[in-house]
Amino acid sequence: MKISKFFKKVFSINKFAKYKKSKIFIHPDSKVGKFTTVGFGTRITGPAFIDSKKESPVSIGKYCAIAHNLRIRTRNHYTGYINMQHRFQRRYNFPELVRTKGAINIGNGVWIGDNVTILPGVEIANGAVIGAGSIVTKSIPPYSIAVGNPAKVIKKRFSDQIIEQLQEINWWDWSEEKIKNNRRFFETDFSQIKKDEMFMINKVIVD
Ligand SMILES: CC(C)(COP(=O)(O)OP(=O)(O)OC[C@H]1O[C@@H](n2cnc3c(N)ncnc32)[C@H](O)[C@@H]1OP(=O)(O)O)[C@@H](O)C(=O)NCCC(=O)NCCS
């Protein structure tokens, strides 16, 4: 009982009415810190724990696919003093232990597999994939696939030439109508376009 009261005080539990309108789904058993923003169309399909704070906010972009048991930690305990428990330090007015590396940003169109932990200060760029069970300790570049502990890039989803062009096309900002009109863009398998093949993405996009 006491524990759930504590969490209610510390975390703002999801406000589903608000999220429904913006087509965001956050699993109801999630604990999401107040200083978290989640973009339009993103789905967190299993319980997540996102420990955002004013000095270390978390932003998650649009149309991300996030599986079960994501944990985002924005702060470390300082390890230089003999005690590493916050409550003990505060009880005796000893120095503060909280250390943050600032914001955690997750881009748009990111896919995060099951049981992923994201550690302080990390950025996961647009279109990246984080494999199941990964611990992300460093920033992950756009449209890459990273796995393991610590998460390392094992491959890119597309050729550099395609990624460069995708960096200019923020499809996640398109209107519903534009998305519907761009069936060709969403049905193109960009992974099949070879490194040396000249492919102009704009040719499969209509305005
Ligand atoms: C990351 C992922 C998408 C890669 O899939 P893939 O492109 O088919 O990659 P492969 O299976 O060919 O694996 C490539 C290499 O990475 C390793 N690997 C793949 N996923 C890994 C993971 N999550 N952790 C550690 N290593 C992993 C493979 O063992 C393989 O290593 P090798 O080259 O030494 O043999 C996939 O493995 C994964 O983790 N999917 C998440 C599934 C999930 O959580 N779904 C939740 C519902 S949405």
Short description:
19% of the residues lie in helices and 23% in strands.
CATH class identity of the largest domain: Mainly Beta
- Tell me the distance between the termini: 54 Å
Name the CATH architecture of the largest domain.
3 Solenoid
Please outline the major beta sheet: 7 strands, mixed
C-alpha-based Rg, rounded: 20 Å
Taken together, the total number of domains comes to 2
Fraction in beta strands: 15-25%
Helix content: 10-25%
CATH superfamily of the largest domain: Hexapeptide repeat proteins
Order of helices and strands: HHEEEEEEEEEHEEEEEEEEEHHH
Indicate the low-confidence ranges by residue numbers: 1-14
- CATH fold-type name of the largest domain: UDP N-Acetylglucosamine Acyltransferase, domain 1
Number of strands: 18
Arrangement of strands in the largest sheet: 1-4-7-12-15-17-18
- Average pLDDT for all residues: 92
